[in-house]
């Protein structure tokens, strides 16, 4: 399939007339053909109206139809074949194997949500029997969760497939019964068009209203803000910068009807190196691998290490100078990200008391990032909030604590994070036990003897965390429970049986596990 | 127990030094002794610091300790005996039977949450097994929900017990493992003191850290806003006016770390009278009873009726003139609420096209409210958003539609509501089926052949709804799932067994139903 420079509005491919933009190949810092037309206010209005009109028929499809639709999207993405991977490589500078892996993850996410939909537990079906003899009589009460309404999705620059047009936010919103309008990310326009057309094909094949899915092309500041402001939009999924997330949160809060924004923003993912674990001679290599994977462009990249001063920590630093020193520079996603990386590193290096302790290989290639490890005393870190800023790319800061108390003080000091890692052996048990409750309050995922990169799409995953890592710590954007973000409960009191939804019918035709008079009842 | 004019900070009763206020007996419009001291910024700071310090030890108590604590609060409230009811009657003008019923509800809510805590399902325990042979290997992942942190609770004027110091928000936050700081409502200061001391006694008897509960006295605009701004506070529960709720939402959104606000604000609870149901000759009495119960001071009061023009509707109106006409005026909660009621009725009566069709009995008693029913053509209602404003008290507006299409247009037009009622018989089946999906998008609870007043504390209850009825349609403030508001998920990856919480242990000692590799596993 050729890339045509088109967006999708309610199933129809069309070229926007409000100017054009082109994608950029970061490895050459050069534009890629063709030009993409930008959406007008009227295009956006049409997408929103179609989404609103599609909501009732779509949410009232059977669980099977909805599940099959998600699987069909997965199939139509695979049908795109190598053309998708080739275009994504050009637009992102990411290697083939990584993009093929990411495509697999994207397809598996869609299939996971198909399973979640078929299971039906997401509806939280709950029944309380009428007690007509009680004083006062208790009515018949039944509760289920339904979709919030049309959802606006803003894809991430760093996952052109898994967090983009048919990524986690789109899959979970569609699973919840919500139509989706994606604002395509300018860093991978052609990839977005290809995937968008695959989704539109699946909508048509599944016999669903065309408004279930649209994908618009335009700037975040105009089209993106207008999308979040539109009365038909009832929730927002976003993955990106803190500034971008905060701007959408503000817009959403200032609407006549405020709506939830699920923004996954910035995180430096502290890694605590407890004394016993420093003896692990695989640690320096594992750290360097995690730091430089995907040019460090992961929300779970290990941007902060914390260790206790001493020979063992010094030995780790020395070994890490070698493992990082062997890492080649790699192409970043966009010239803008590369520029911000250079500036972030320069600012960090310029802070009094901050010292460079490891550097990867340099390069003259456009948009290529060199890896770095810096070091700073904990006292300095605790006194300077600037040192907590995210540097998006392969640079990390080692905070050197004088003792256990100072290490715990750093844990208490950091902002909310997606992940917190602890490297520990049984010898570190006491210190780890003191660290754990602090991390429970600070992060969404606590991990031992590993790094946060590599986010498993599973039922027990939390890719979320206290502000500012996300806008809403009550949720996750990866894993099965991401569907919960787009649902709200509705209670049905004394509603006649012929009007009740299937999930709440007396005979439980879907064989759902349900809460009946407070007890879990399971007919499976 | 004497009312002493005190607040409670971390278990200690003390008298604020920032001025005084007194409670008011609305039936006499006269002050009641004693004076209550107002909290200083330092008092608030102390309560917040104690709550923060209490969070870790409290959330890590066993489920049994936490459940027993909630039951002990219920016992200590009952121990207050008639003194509590007498003081509440004086402060609110509500009759003894109503307050005794409300006390029963308050105590039952605490006991329901004790059951929810013991059940343990609220933790959403979820496990995914490690797959070490997979490429890449899958880690061991386990998820549970924990409390958000200290919660600020703002009680309602209209439920001095069930939505106040130890009401639904407090009970559900404590159940979730969150310390609570209540800002006492100025409409029932003595009632608040008595209940606050009962809670403090239960904290002490249960051997919990004193910071688990504080109750401060002060103005909403200063102390209340300062409480919501405090960094230690991680969520807010509020029941009250739309202006009050919006102000707290704004403060919470503008914090350095924004926090969730669960504000239950205003609702006019549309009641759709479908043609077949108008033949029910009990309807006029049932409506008048619901309208005037508790002087109409319920968030679920039927403030809007919608019917289709014709002889049957006219017969309903004529009969309702009689049933409302027989209703005596009754004392409202505060002089301020009474004044706002008079002004709301006057404004409604002054709108061109609005016509009074029923009036209850008048009175000269202070703060007593006369009931009214007004009527307006649907075209007029659809054109004037002011007619949708809540009048807190026993006044309702009948919207007369020309036909079914206009009735459905009114349903589509109204703002988000707590409840939507449909009066219908089998003859109305087609129209009811068209109305239902509209109501699903507009309200939290759909009820048939009844009125929204009387909110059952049950598992399938939703007391919530789309904005502006609440700030967050994803939740309920009444019923078992109210606990979900104060929880967030944490994922544990490869965490050693000796550090795992009990709910995630391999041997499942609490016999929780858990999701294991995507399937519900239940050992009960």
Automatic annotation (TrEMBL), chains A, B:
EC number: 1.2.1.26
TM region(s), chain numbering: none
Keyword Oxidoreductase: yes
GO molecular function per UniProt: 2,5-dioxovalerate dehydrogenase (NADP+) activity
Catalytic activity field: 2,5-dioxopentanoate + NAD(+) + H2O = 2-oxoglutarate + NADH + 2 H(+); 2,5-dioxopentanoate + NADP(+) + H2O = 2-oxoglutarate + NADPH + 2 H(+)
SUPFAM superfamilies linked: ALDH-like
Residue ranges annotated for the Aldehyde dehydrogenase domain, each copy included: 17-465
Keywords: Oxidoreductase
Root EC class: oxidoreductase
Classification via Pfam families: Aldedh (PF00171)
The keyword Iron-sulfur appears for this protein: no
Gene3D superfamilies: Aldehyde Dehydrogenase, Chain A, domain 1, Aldehyde Dehydrogenase, Chain A, domain 2
Family to which the UniProt record says this protein belongs: Belongs to the aldehyde dehydrogenase family.
Protein's recorded name: 2,5-dioxovalerate dehydrogenase
UniProt source species: Duganella phyllosphaerae
Lineage: Bacteria, Pseudomonadati, Pseudomonadota, Betaproteobacteria, Burkholderiales
């Amino acid at each position: 399939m050729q890339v045509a420079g088109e967006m999708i509005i309610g199933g129809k491919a069309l070229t926007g007339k409000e100017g054009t933009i082109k994608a950029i190949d970061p490895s050459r810092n050069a534009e890629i053909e063709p030009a993409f037309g930008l959406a007008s206010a009227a295009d956006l209005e049409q997408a929103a109206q179609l989404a609103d009109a599609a909501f009732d028929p779509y949410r009232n499809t059977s669980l099977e139809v909805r599940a099959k639709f998600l699987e069909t999207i997965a199939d139509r993405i695979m049908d795109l074949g190598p053309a998708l991977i080739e275009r994504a490589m050009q637009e992102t500078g990411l290697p083939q194997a990584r993009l093929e892996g990411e495509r697999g993850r994207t397809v598996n996410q869609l299939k996971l949500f198909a399973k979640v939909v078929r299971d039906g537990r997401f509806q939280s079906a709950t029944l309380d029997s009428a007690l007509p003899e009680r004083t006062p009589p208790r009515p018949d009460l039944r509760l289920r969760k339904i979709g919030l309404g049309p959802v606006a999705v803003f894809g991430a620059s760093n996952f052109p497939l898994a967090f983009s047009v048919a990524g986690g936010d789109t899959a979970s919103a569609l699973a919840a019964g919500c139509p989706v309008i994606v604002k395509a990310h300018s860093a991978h326009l052609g990839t977005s068009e290809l995937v968008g057309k695959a989704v539109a094909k699946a909508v048509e094949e599944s016999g669903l209203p065309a408004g279930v899915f649209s994908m618009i092309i335009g700037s975040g500041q105009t089209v993106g803000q207008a999308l979040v402001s539109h009365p038909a939009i009832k929730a927002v999924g976003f993955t990106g910068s803190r500034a971008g997330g905060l701007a959408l949160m503000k817009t959403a809060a200032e609407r006549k009807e405020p709506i939830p924004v699920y923004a996954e923003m910035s995180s430096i993912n502290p890694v605590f190196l407890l004394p016993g674990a420093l003896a692990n001679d695989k640690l320096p290599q594992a750290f360097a691998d995690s730091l430089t994977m995907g040019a460090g462009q992961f929300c779970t990249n290990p941007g902060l290490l914390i260790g206790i001063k001493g020979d063992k920590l010094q030995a780790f630093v020395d070994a890490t100078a070698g493992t990082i020193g062997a890492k080649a520079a790699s192409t970043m996603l966009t010239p803008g990200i590369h520029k911000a990386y250079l500036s972030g590193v320069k600012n960090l290096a310029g802070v009094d008391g901050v010292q460079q302790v490891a550097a990867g290989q340099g390069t003259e290639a456009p948009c290529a990032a060199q890896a770095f490890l810096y070091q700073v005393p904990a006292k300095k870190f605790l006194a300077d909030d600037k040192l907590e800023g995210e540097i998006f790319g392969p640079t990390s800061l080692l905070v050197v604590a004088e003792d256990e108390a100072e290490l715990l003080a750093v844990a208490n000091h950091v902002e909310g994070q997606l992940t917190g890692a602890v490297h520990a052996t049984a010898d570190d048990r006491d210190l780890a036990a003191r660290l754990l409750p602090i991390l429970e309050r600070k992060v969404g995922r606590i991990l031992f003897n590993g790094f946060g990169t590599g986010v498993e799409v599973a039922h027990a995953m939390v890719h979320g965390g206290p502000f500012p890592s996300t806008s809403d710590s009550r949720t996750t954007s990866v894993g099965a429970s991401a569907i919960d973000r787009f649902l709200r409960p509705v209670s049905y009191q004394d509603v006649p049986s012929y009007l009740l939804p299937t999930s709440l019918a007396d005979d439980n035709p879907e064989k759902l596990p349900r809460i009946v008079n407070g007890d879990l009842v399971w007919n499976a």
